[in-house]
Automatic annotation (TrEMBL):
One cellular component (GO) term of this entry: membrane
GO molecular function, one term: ATP hydrolysis activity
Organism: Frisingicoccus caecimuris
Localization in the cell: Membrane
Major localization class: membrane
Domain of life assignment: Bacteria
UniProt name for this protein: Cation-transporting ATPase E
Alphabetical list of PROSITE patterns matching this protein: ATPASE_E1_E2 (PS00154)
Coiled coil: none
Segments forming domain P-type ATPase A: 97-196
One Pfam entry name: Hydrolase
Residues that span the membrane, as ranges: 213-235, 247-271, 592-612, 618-640, 660-681, 687-704, 716-736, 742-764
Record keyword Transmembrane helix present: yes
Membrane topology type: Multi-pass membrane protein
């Protein structure tokens, strides 16, 4: 049928439509453009605020306090460089996974990217395809589409000639030809997306928490900064220039730009590292969702097994083997399905094409069968035995025996009627069974053992016979693989479904919408759910999972809705991908405490010193050395560290367990310094020295806390940044506006440092007790 009755557009007609702009261009891309990357790292609220603060420092004339701008510039340059580097890698992978459309041009069919479709193109559509542009059906061989991405309704919709195939929907059965009627922004799905994005984004507790931090600090920065300036200018002995510098120091400390940059670069580098492991991340938030997954749902074929199916036996029922072969020689080649089962049938049987076809019903995951009516040879159906014949003891016993051996079984039956209106069959009489084998992947056992060690529960959700799937799962070493259920017996009530899903590991004879409900049931029970799939029957579950993972060799529809695409289509690579995701999130969570500590104590100190009307304890140059040795260098090293830690939910809680007691220690000790300075009559230079040394000491303690549990690399890091800090204030006291640390009056700092350690230890324990109680 391919192209015999169609010529499609000519090259000249295609060019004319391109010149008119009638091309299916899209604004949606996996990666940002170069201009967007540069803009994202330069034209930000906090960058403009830092520039304004820099102008204030210039006005003050104290130019050495401009060092913080150097850090900002370096951060922006590094961010741009890293993201451009990752963009190149991602763009190369995206070309491989991009959806294709099969079009007829100059009388021949060929595959092109959907972005190259033009108005009036003639398109060939088949099961598993995502519709890339609005089309009108020209001819249909049982076309059924799922329009859930547009309408929210998951039931398949039958399409006849003259009906519209909407962009964003996907084929679930049949094949046919269609003509493009809308392109680009005129597509229905594009117009819909401009109002509300249909694809569910991967959940990101970390991103949400950081956005809240930015919103709060961004809101209070300006009013607190103004009040701080008024307070500093009114303080005794403070000049206008000093008031400006002190205010800048307070505001700089409150800006969480390092936290934002750290998260952004870490995710970007994570995308790059995952790409190096043959995983295309289509949404950066998916990295966090992947790291927190504790229930991983997957299909059997292509994950536990190789997916290389082979027909091994024909078992006759009612008809002899020769007649079964004659029937299957026709049926096996009468449909355009592209899947492993169809490939196995076509490899085993021979194409004869002797019988004239009257009508046919293509296979769909919802029906679990295909049917065909011949003009003279009668009506036949091929599909899952449980869906075609209910009460046949002999047949059921044979199916169960094959299933216990891990075999897939299809029933070939003769039927009295085929209803093309509701796509159903009636009066099915068994003709025979077709037994198909599948090989277990040799790496499956090791993969399951890894996930068990990481406290990730594997759930197998398959359209095959539950006994077959269970036996294969047990042989592959899946813990709990013997606990199976036929999805037809699952409760319809969602609350009842929530109660029963923890009892099972294997689900068989699952329909596409049931996969979606099972995923939602685990989520409702508090689990973070990952879904691995490759077929059109997995799309609904992939869309609603916390992290949807598709195989590159799978259907276009599955790849389009997934958050991550496995380029090598190998489930075993999930081990390294999950490990990488957990490493990224664990490192971000660890070093976020460094940044948040500075933000918290800066906000508290600003408010307190506004009320006290005293001189702010730091100037910008103090925060530059503290930020470099206790935040910048440690965060850079720790972010790149290869670790593997299971991250729990509660990003803010985990970060505050370190940052809150550290920030409170800083605030309390700065206030104690004020008392000590007043008692001993210290001048501003000596007070500044006490403030910087104690602040540096507390910041180094935070680094040590973040680095736990210690290893050689972390121990060297802690020692190195401590030495850098001490060397800086020892050799450059004048530059940092402090007295030399060998001054005898600094003897009193020793008991203060001891008090600092005890106070921080006590506050840390108190905060952890409080967070555990909550």
């Amino acid at each position: 049928m391919e192209g015999k009755d169609y010529d499609g557009l000519t090259g000249a007609e295609v060019k004319a439509r391109i010149d008119k702009g009638q091309v299916n261009t899209s604004d949606s891309h996996i990666s940002k453009t170069t201009a967007e990357i540069v803009r994202c790292h330069t034209l930000t609220y906090f960058n403009f605020l830092n520039l304004f603060l820099g102008v204030l420092v210039i006005i003050s004339g104290q130019f050495k306090n401009l060092t913080f701008l150097g850090v900002i510039i370096c951060n922006s340059v590094i961010g741009i460089f890293q993201e451009l580097k990752v963009k190149k890698l991602i763009d190369n992978l995206a070309v491989i996974t991009a959806s294709k459309a099969r079009v007829c041009r100059n009388g021949r069919f060929k595959d092109i990217p959907i972005e190259e479709l033009v108005m009036d193109d003639l398109v060939s559509v088949e099961n598993g395809n995502q519709i890339g542009a609005d089309c009108v059906v020209l001819d249909s061989e049982g076309i059924e589409v799922n329009e859930s991405m547009i309408t929210g309704e998951s039931r398949p919709v039958r399409k006849l000639p003259g009906d519209t195939l909407w962009s964003g929907s996907f084929m679930v059965a049949g094949s046919g030809r269609a003509k493009v009627i809308h392109v680009g922004k005129d597509n229905y799905a594009t117009q819909l997306a401009s109002q509300a994005k249909q694809k569910k984004r991967a959940s990101s507790e970390m991103q949400d928490s950081i956005k809240r931090i930015i919103k709060v600090t961004g809101t209070i920065l300006v009013p607190v900064g103004i009040l701080l300036f008024i307070s500093q200018w009114g303080a005794e002995g403070i000049t206008f220039s000093d008031a400006l510098v002190n205010t800048v120091a307070g505001v700089i400390g409150m800006i969480p730009e390092g936290l934002v940059l750290l998260t952004s670069i870490s995710f970007i580098l994570g995308v790059g590292r995952l790409a190096g492991k043959q995983a295309l991340v289509q949404e950066m938030e998916a990295i966090e969702a992947l790291a927190r997954v504790n229930v991983l749902c997957l299909d059997k074929t292509g994950t536990i097994t190789t997916g290389a199916l082979e027909v091994v036996e024909l078992i006759p029922f009612g008809e002899n083997v020769a007649r079964m072969r004659d029937v299957m020689n026709e049926i096996a080649f009468a449909f355009d399905d592209v899947n492993a089962t169809q490939d196995a049938l076509m490899a085993y049987f021979e194409k004869t094409s002797k019988w004239k076809i009257k009508s046919k019903i293509p296979f769909s995951s919802d029906r679990k069968y295909r049917a065909i009516a011949f003009e003279e040879e009668g009506n036949y159906v091929l599909g899952a035995p449980e869906f075609l014949v209910k009460d046949n003891k002999e047949l059921n016993e044979k199916v169960d025996a094959c299933s216990r051996d891990g075999m897939r079984v299809l029933l070939l039956g003769k039927c009295s009627g085929i209803n093309m209106t509701d796509m159903s069959v009636s009066g099915v009489e068994p003709s025979g069974l077709i037994v198909i084998s599948d090989c277990i992947r040799p790496e499956a056992r090791g993969t399951f053992e890894y996930f068990a060690s990481q406290n990730v529960d594997i759930k197998v959700i398959s359209g095959d016979n539950p006994v077959t799937v269970s036996n294969i799962a047990v042989k592959a070493g899946l813990e709990g693989g013997e606990r199976y259920i036929d999805a037809n017996t699952l409760p319809e009530d969602f609350e009842e479904l929530r109660e029963v899903v923890p009892n099972y590991t294997v689900y068989g004879r699952v329909r596409p919408e049931q996969k979606q409900r099972i995923v939602k049931a685990y989520q409702a029970n508090g689990s973070v759910v990952g879904m691995v799939g490759d077929g059109v029957n997995d799309v609904l579950a992939l869309k609603d999972a916390n992290c949807g993972i598709a195989m590159a060799a799978g259907s276009d529809a599955a790849k389009q809705v997934a958050h991550i695409v496995l380029m090598d289509s190998n489930f075993a690579s999930m081990k390294s991908i999950v490990r990488e995701g957990r490493m990224i999130i664990s490192n971000i969570e660890r070093v976020s405490a460094l940044y948040l500590t500075k933000t918290i104590y800066s906000v508290l100190l600003s408010i307190i010193f506004i009320i006290l009307g005293r001189t702010y304890p730091f100037v910008p140059i103090h925060l530059s050395i503290i930020s470099t040795t206790a935040i910048g260098i440690p965060s850079f090293i720790l972010t790149l560290e290869q670790t593997e830690t299971v991250t729990s939910n509660g990003f803010m809680r985990n970060v505050l367990r370190i940052s809150l007691p550290s920030a409170l220690t800083m605030v309390i000790m700065m206030l104690i310094n004020q008392v000590v300075a007043g008692f001993f009559g210290f001048d501003s230079l000596m007070l500044s020295t006490y403030n910087l040394i104690l602040a540096g000491c507390i910041s180094q303690m935070v680094v040590w806390e973040v680095c736990r549990p210690m290893n050689t690399r972390r121990r060297v890091l802690c020692i190195a940044v401590g030495v850098i800090f001490v060397a800086a204030i020892f050799f450059l006291p004048g530059f940092f506006n402090i007295t030399h640390i060998l001054n005898w009056r600094l003897i009193f700092i020793i008991p203060l440092m001891i008090l600092t350690g005890c106070l921080m230890q006590w506050l840390t324990k108190a905060v952890r007790i409080l967070t555990k109680q909550r």
